[in-house]
C-alpha cells in the first residue's frame, strides 16, 4: 500500500511542471513518461484540465490563421474567399 502511495506521489507532480508540459506539447511531441505524468496530473487536477483546453483553443485559432496565411502565399488559385475579400478591401481603401 505504501509503495502504491509512493508511486502516485512520483506520478502526480506539481501544476508548474504540468503547465510546462502542456506548453511543450503544443510545439513538441512529448515522451511516453511525460505523457503518462501529464495524464495522471490532469486526472486529479481540474485547473490544469481547464488550462489545457484554453491552450488548445488558442492553438487551433493560431493554426487556422497560419493555414490561411500559407494558402494566400500559394497564389490566386488557392486563395480562400475570406482572404480574397480581405485583399479586395485593402485595395478599395
Ligand atoms: Zn495541476
Account of the 3D structure:
The chain has about 90 residues and is an all-alpha fold. It has two domains: about 1-45, no CATH class; about 50-93, no CATH class. About 80% of the residues lie in helices and about 0% in strands. The chain has five helices and no strands. Helix 2 packs across helix 3 and helix 3 (about 30-45) packs across helix 4. The longest helix is centred in the middle third of the chain and has 28 residues, at about 45-75. The N and C termini lie far apart (about 70 Å). The model has no long low-confidence stretch (mean pLDDT about 80). Zinc ion binds near residues 47 and 48.
SSE order, as H and E? HHHHH
Largest sheet: none
Oligomer category: single chain
The rounded Rg comes to 21 Å
- Proportion of beta-strand residues: under 5%
Strand segment count: 0
Stretches where pLDDT is under 50 for at least 5 consecutive residues are: none
Helix content, binned percent: over 70%
**Number of separate structural domains:** 2
Computed structural class: mainly alpha
Mean pLDDT: 81
How many angstroms does the end-to-end distance come to?
72 Å
Q: What form results from the Cα inertia axes?
A: elongated
Query: Helical element count?
Result: 5
Ligand names: zinc ion
Task: Supply the key terms.
93 residues, 2 domains, mainly alpha, elongated, 0% strand
How would you summarize the topology of this molecule?
Elements: H1 2-11, H2 15-27, H3 32-44, H4 46-73, H5 81-92
Helix pairs in contact: 2-3, 2-4, 3-4
The protein binds zinc ion.
Amino acid at each position: 500500500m505504501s509503495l502504491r502511495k509512493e508511486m502516485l506521489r512520483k506520478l502526480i507532480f506539481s501544476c508548474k511542471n504540468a503547465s510546462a508540459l502542456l506548453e511543450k506539447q503544443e510545439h513538441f511531441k512529448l515522451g511516453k513518461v511525460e505523457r503518462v505524468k501529464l495524464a495522471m496530473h490532469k486526472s486529479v487536477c481540474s485547473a490544469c484540465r481547464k488550462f489545457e483546453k484554453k491552450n488548445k483553443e488558442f492553438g487551433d485559432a493560431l493554426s487556422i490563421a497560419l493555414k490561411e496565411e500559407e494558402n494566400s502565399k500559394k497564389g490566386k488559385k488557392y486563395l480562400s474567399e475570406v482572404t480574397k475579400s480581405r485583399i479586395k478591401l485593402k485595395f478599395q481603401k
